[in-house]
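Quarterly update from the structural biology core.
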Amino acid sequence: MSASGGRPAPRHKASRVLMGDKIYSICSHIEKFQLNPKTFLTAFLHHSSINAAFRRRFWGTVGWASTQRLLMNIKLLAIRIVRLQRPSSGTYPKGSYVNSSDVTVEFFTEAARLARIQTLTSEMPFLYQLLVAKLQANGTPAELDDGDEEPAPNHENDQSNLASQSSDIIPADGTNEPAANQPRPTATPLDVWPPARMIPTINKQPIRVAG
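Predicted structure, tokenized:
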């Protein structure tokens, strides 16, 4: 309060700090803890400490727009990496260009095939790992397995899963049985594959497929 008019003293605006100076100051600070921007951000998003979890709550307070800008910048960086990583130019076998009129028998050998795979994984590792992760995400282990036989259902694992689900409910009296007012896990039948309604039939007779 000013002594003359009883009005609050005017606030002085803090001097504006350039974004480049802010980035330099923050990076210099985290480097003192042997961190870089990527390791810090990864730890911030995944660390299980209470302090980190509490601060992650503010991640969504500024809305989706800022998160989308962050993802777009990561996407542009990924595109730049893919463009920079490219196979050797030139004609096969020294390069990646293959002219069908010049293909010889050696092109179809196992050694040549392994060499092409090695070239793909070593000269374009980012794109290779990205495609592998995408293919694995779209398929389940059963779909990726080449085996003809399905594994037998494991009744012991199913029972242990039900037991672990029910163990989340702790009775107030300390006994193994839940109290009367506590919800009980719903017993579900084991999955059977294929369902009877999905077995193809002709004239109501199941089709037998030769094994």
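The mean pLDDT is 71.
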